[in-house]
Specification:
Length: 364
Amino acid sequence: MTKRVYNFSPGPAVLPLSVLEQIQSEMISLPGVGASILEISHRSPAFDAILAESQALIRQLLGVPENYRILFMQGGAHLQFTALALNFLRGAGKTAEYIITGTWGNAALKEAQKEGPTRVVWDGKQHNYSRLPAFSELKLSADAAYIHMTSNETIQGVQFVGQPDTGTAPLICDSASDFLSRPVDVARYSMIYACAQKNAGISGVTAIVIRDDLLERVPKNLSASLDYANFAKNDSRPNTPPTFAIYVLMLVGRWLRDTIGGLDKMAALNSSKAKLLYDAIDTSGGFYRPHARPDSRSKMNVTFRLPSEDLEKAFVKEAVKQDLTELKGHRSVGGIRASIYNAMPLVAVEMLAKFMADFAKKIT
Ligand SMILES: *Cc1c(COP(=O)(O)O)cnc(C)c1O
């Protein structure tokens, strides 16, 4: 096998090696099918089984209650910014409320503003998105069209634990960068959506977990390709779905269930990986400066700065020499970002923590 680096990319991101190997071994011919996943009809019995198993795995892993549907759409999380506003805000005669904790929350809000009235209930801008609100700080309206949150802000590296109580107002969550990384109390949400390419697979498919009664609120005459009720009615196949991406999602789901042992185990592993890096930051004598306040730290994206931009550049360059790649922060915030999603092996994070200690020692 050709060499693989330790890839800290924020997304598309590292996949389990065993999943890549299985894709490789089945690429020419799916067992029992005699044709590639890339070649078969989305209405074939073989794909029926793949779609059903992908949905069943998400249901099982997250403990999704019976009265929720699992839909797959294309267009990434971005399309959901628009779709959820089309389905639940346009013409609703209500206001949608947004909790803004970073770049992605702002992006979601911008699309909703095109469809109806919105209100920002909290914005972390004045803290440079380094902290999250306490749920008790939020003044949410019971009659909001919906309340939107981002469970993990991928660029700033801040992540909620739990969710606000929104009473009768639907709570909708962009979970793009922490989906299937930990258990979630799904019943507290009306809708959770996540593109797969961070924790759960590859780009091309977005999973939507949505409560049945929301589907009844979808207005008639919505564009068919953006209509959640239409996707539910046609089991995510009003047209050709991203068949390969759904197949990869199934393989990652099996890996989470069988190799990892479920989301409790995955969460524990993700916590220990994150702790290694935050400890490396906290014991560096101020050399590494964390972006997120300790109570808001993400277990998925660890963001920090060095004393100067030149040192940050040198850090990224030196790290590559040790096969630790994609550590540069997002262009909008700078600094360093280590994305340590589900499939990032513990050994890679241990190597990065050691590299951080060595680099700081060498400079100071
Ligand atoms: C990556 C990401 C998105 C954007 O996903 P696309 O599939 O590129 O549209 C949105 N929200 C969050 C939290 C993300 O991490």
